Every structure is written in C-alpha cells, then in structure tokens.
Amino acid sequence: MDINNDLWELSRIIFSYPAIDNHAHAFLREEYKDAYPLEGLISEAQGNGPLLRDSVHTLACYRATNQLAKLFGLGPNADWEAVKAHRSSISYEQLCKTCMEPTNIQCILIDDGLGGADKDKMYDYKWHDRVTHSPTKRIVRVEIVAEEHLKRAMDKQIAESNVTPGDLFKSFVREFSVALKASAVDPEVVGFKSIACYRTGLDVSTSQDPSAIERAVMTLLLVYVSKHDLRLADKPINDFIVNMTMRIAAECGKPVQFHTGLGDNDITLNLSSPSHLQPLIKAYPNTKVVLLHSSYPYTQEAGYLTAVYENVFLDFGEVFPFVSPDGQREILRQVLELAPTNKIMWSTDGHFWPESYYLGTLQARQALFEVLESSIRKWELTLPQAVGIVKRAFFENANRIYNLGLEPRVQ
Predict the structure, then answer these.
(1) Which residue, among 240, 245, 267, has the nearest Cα to 256 in the 3D structure?
(2) Which CATH superfamily is 3-401 part of?
C-alpha cells in the first residue's frame, strides 16, 4: 500500500466533497454590507471597542488575513487593512461569488432569528438559494418566537386590564404552542434552536413550578409596560419554553439545536457546558439534540454525551475561524475521542459576511485532513475508514438527522 497515494486521495475528497452547512445565519443585505466591523469574522467580542480591535493581533486573524489575501489575489504581504480595502472595492455580487464558489456548500440550514432590531439588515433565508445548489432551509429560534407571542399576549392584557397573570400565561402558551406546531409541519423548517445558553444557562429544569412562572410573567409584564420591550431571560419561563419545544420536536421528529460553549460575553461560561443538559437529554429520549459550536471549550463533555445518549449529536462549527490552527486540530481530536462518527456534523456558523462561510469551510476541511492524515500515517485508520468519516461529517449525517433527502452533488 502506498501511503502517499492514500493521502493524496484523502485530500482530494476532503477538499472537494459537497457539504451541508447544518448551522449558519444570513448574509447582510448589500446596502448594509459594512454595517458591522469586519473583525467580527474572527472574534466574538461585541461592539467596536478595544476587545474587538485586539482581535487583529490573534493567530486566528493572521491566518484569516493570509487566506483572504490569497483568495482575493492580493500580494503575500497584504495585511488586514488591505483585505478590508479590497472587499470594499469590488461589487457585492462578486464578493459573494468569490467567497462561496470554492466552498462547495450544497445546502445551508439557516437560523434566521439572529439580528434583533437589525434583522432587516439581513437577507431572507431563501435569498441564499442563489449561492447553493440545493434549497436553503430554516432553523426556528424558539426564544424569538416566544418573545413575539408573549408580547402579543401582554398587549392584549394591557388592553383588557382585568386579565390575571395566569390567564396571560395560558394565552401565551396556547399561541406559542400553535406557532411551534406550525413550524413542526412546515417543510421549510428542518429544526429548532434554543439560545437558553445565552439567556439563563444550560441547566434547564425538567420540572415546572406554575407559581414561579406566574411571578416571572408578572415581572416581565411590569418591565414591558414601562419599557415596551421584552427579552426573555427569566429562568422559569425560559425553561418552560425549552421543555415545550423538546416535546413538540419529539412529536414531529425534528432536531433541537442548542447553543453550547463558545459565545460572547453575554454567556455565563460555566453554565455553557453541555453537561448541564444531561437531565433534559434523559427526560426526552425521543428528541434529537444537536450540541452546537463544538461546545468549545467543553468539547470532551459534548463528545461524551454523544457516546452515551442515542439522541445526542455534535456540531463541530464556529471554532473556524475563531480558534488558532493548533486549537482547531486539538478540538477535532477531542470530537473524535469518543463521539461516534455517524453523529458528528460540520457547520460554518457563517453570518453577515460571505467571508465567514469561506473561512469556516476552508479551515474545517484543512483541520480534518490534518487530523485524519496523522491517523493514517500511524496506521490507526485505513483510507476507506477516513473517507467514510469525511462523507458522514460533511454531508451524510446532517442529511439523515434533518431528513433533507438530498443526494451529494459530487463534482
């Protein structure tokens, strides 16, 4: 057996096989393409302050600079500012085409709940069909849906001042349930997503206290009356929303994605470990649970959960390009320590900029090649075994878990 031929074949397949991006977000509209600092490509730091500016001095940014400079045909000494200047000098159509064509992403599953008040700055999920070969599908962010329906219930309560907190909550539950079930039967929706990690942490209780929920509803109502704004971050209500989602998702067979690990400073880090989800996972064995973002820095805990619970799956995304090259390789090694390879899926967590999709794809393919190459050189994997891992991770697993019914468009 010629190991060099095997490695060449592995490289060919890894860098050409079509991919399903199982978790991403929308592009900014052309007129808003510079609405946010491009440094958000390589950092979760918020705003435009010192932390975001510091990100240009990370290994992640140096590597992204070099890769984008090469993609854009700039010189070998191009810096971050040169990359930014070039992207501003070309048409948005050209930028999207330049970034997306090399990725060979066949299908994107878009969580279109990102953006908040700035959501109108982003394209509708169907717009992204123009940059893929298979239709884009939706992931419904349940906390955003819940906020919309709770606002409606509160507006009604304000208009009818004799409504009790219990009546208010019952009205919300009825409408929210209808909305979730409508999404469950919508062929455009392939899954749900919870951001409980951001709001109250992943230690979601599986038991409900009606009196605690009613008190939380009353507190939210008082805030809403004074500020006319609503953000669900009250644990009794947030836990209720997650439990309802888990029940309905089980009925319709659609997965529930959970943000785990890596995020901005709105997260309580020690509550972002997927290990906190263990009681919820056990309580809903018929609900498919997808742990997003490699659960970094809790990747090993996530791998453990996929190994011992049939209904748990692990997405290895977002660490590309936020983490250094060595860090990415180590994360993939941790993913593969325990996780069955028929339960891992890749994503870009691409958002706002087409460059995020390009970097998320290129770096993931590079890291997976380097990890599998090492195993083949050590005679720990055969070429067919490694190729099987690649095809499952980039396409087959997501195709099966989200019931997409796609055929890989092999070039």
Answers:
(1) 245
(2) Metal-dependent hydrolases (3.20.20.140)
Sheet holding 312-316, edge to edge: 19-24, 105-111, 137-141, 189-194, 256-258, 289-291, 312-316, 344-346
* Three-state DSSP string of 291-308: ECHHHCCCHHHHHHHHHH
Cβ neighbours for 58, distance < 8 A, ≥ 6 positions apart: 42, 43, 324
Residue pair 138/125 in contact (Cβ under 8 Å)? The answer is yes
Looking at the predicted structure, is the pLDDT value of residue 346 above 90? yes
State the chain's maximal CA–CA distance in angstroms: 80
CB 140 within 8 A of CB 52: no
**Contacts (Cβ under 8 Å, ≥6 apart) of 315:** 22, 23, 257, 290, 291, 292, 293, 294, 344, 345, 346, 347
377 or 266: which leads in pLDDT: 377
Question: Where do the structural domains in the chain lie, given as residue ranges?
Answer: 3-401
Q: Provide the token pair at 53.
A: 């500016």
What are 56-71's pLDDT values in tens digits? 999 999 999 999 999 9
Is the pLDDT at 287 greater than 80? The verdict is yes
Residue range 158-217, pLDDT digits in tens: 777 766 777 888 888 999 999 999 999 999 999 999 999 999 999 999 998 888 888 888
Geometric angle at alpha carbon 274, from 291 and 257, rounded to 5°: 25
Amino acid at 397: N
Q: Tell me the C-alpha distance between 28 and 119, whole Å.
A: 9
End-to-end CA distance of the chain: 27
Supply φ then ψ for residue 261, to 5 degrees. 65, -130
Asked if 260 contacts 295 with a C-beta cutoff of 8 angstroms, the reply is yes
Cis omega (within 30 of 0) for bond into 297:
yes
For 39-48, 171-180, 347-356, 391-400, which range has the lowest pLDDT when averaged over its residues? 39-48
CA dihedral 55, 60, 62, 63 (to 10 degrees): -160
- Please give the Cα distance from 250 to 288 (Å, whole number): 7
